[in-house]
Write a structure and sequence with these properties.
With 284 residues, the protein is of the alpha/beta class. The protein has a single domain, classed as Rossmann fold (3-Layer(aba) Sandwich), CATH 3.40.50. The protein contains 8 helices and 12 strands. Strand 5, helix 5 and strand 6 form a beta-alpha-beta unit. Helix 5 packs parallel to helix 8. Bound molecules: S-adenosylmethionine. The site of S-adenosylmethionine has 20 residues, from helix 3.
């Protein structure tokens, strides 16, 4: 049996997809992988925002803009339109996708271009604090370094910058993939990784395993390389991600926030196997 968790797969497609063309993740993989939004997920966010009477919203990792536009539309349907909705994005391709979507949906959402590490500096600049900031779809994981401790410190620094954009008593909703579960798959043979990286439902990314085959091709405590294969177009891409472990996230958040609730794939409570772990944290 061949092991999947080997170094060649950091940069190369696995054997059966060796003739696939490497493509840009944001432009060619993300739209199919995202596959639109699910109503129940938008309801989950809209309910929380309305219940807590939050008025100004900020999406810190806008991506293609589907989630933020879905939340704003759902809030309007609930007769609770946000007083303002703004977004942060660093990637030009994502800014382009979001602008197109917002124009189509006639949404007035200001996009601030900024690298998180430069915050609060942004173009255009931020002019006020927010009641609700969110970073969803496994995004903090882009930040990190060569050791688990370095990653934790770098992520801590970014969370500190997010905190400066949120008013006292406001909320940060943030998630990451369940890296504790992914780490438990380290050293398994390829067939078992495929079997164990299947889930009863999809979260956020509704093209997952239907349109885009995704799995961790390389796993270590400090780096996880996710491979993305589009079988219909014979293209592939990958992301090298820095794991966010549950214990580390609790430490990181607790500096500026009280953690109010933890969810696994939108359900409260602890779980070993899940796609995403989500944290609702209140600014101290
Ligand atoms: C996995 S995507 C999530 C997109 C979107 N929230 C969704 O669920 O579809 C991660 C997002 O984080 C953004 N991002 C990653 N590193 C960043 C950084 N250093 N500064 C600002 N944004 C960053 C990416 O451009 C992208 O929009």
């Amino acid at each position: 049996m061949s092991f999947i968790n080997t170094l060649p797969y950091i940069s190369n497609p696995i054997g059966e997809f060796s003739d696939y063309k490497y493509v840009n993740w944001e432009a060619k993989i993300y739209p199919e992988f995202k596959g639109g939004v699910r109503r129940s997920e938008m309801e989950f966010f809209a309910k929380l925002i309305k219940e807590k009477k939050l008025k100004s919203l900020l999406d810190l990792g806008l991506g293609g803009g589907n989630d933020l536009s879905g939340i704003v539309r759902t809030l309007r349907k609930k007769n609770y339109p946000p007083a303002c909705a703004e977004a942060n994005e660093v990637d030009d391709e994502f800014i382009r996708q979001s602008r197109t979507l917002f124009k189509k949906e006639k949404l007035d959402i200001q996009i601030h271009k900024a690298n998180w590490i430069d915050l609060p500096y942004a173009v255009p600049e931020y002019t006020h604090l927010f009641d609700w900031a969110m970073l969803i779809g496994n995004s903090l994981t882009y930040i990190g370094g060569g050791t688990r401790d370095y990653t934790k410190k770098a992520q801590q620094s970014v969370i500190g910058k997010f905190a400066r954009l949120i008013r006292r008593g406001g909320y940060l909703f943030i998630d990451s993939r369940n890296y504790d579960y992914i780490l438990s798959l380290m050293n398994l043979p390829i067939e078992e990784i495929f079997n164990k990286f299947t889930f009863a439902q999809t979260i956020y990314y509704h093209g997952f395993q239907k349109k885009i085959l995704v799995f961790p091709a390389y796993i270590s405590e400090t780096v996880v390389v996710l491979h993305y294969y589009d079988k219909s177009k014979k293209i592939w891409s990958k992301l090298d991600l820095y794991p966010v472990y549950l214990k580390d996230m609790l430490d990181i958040l607790s500096k500026d926030f009280e953690i109010e609730k933890i969810y696994h794939d939108f359900k409260p409570g602890a779980k070993t196997k899940s796609l995403f772990i989500q944290y609702l944290a209140r600014k101290k």
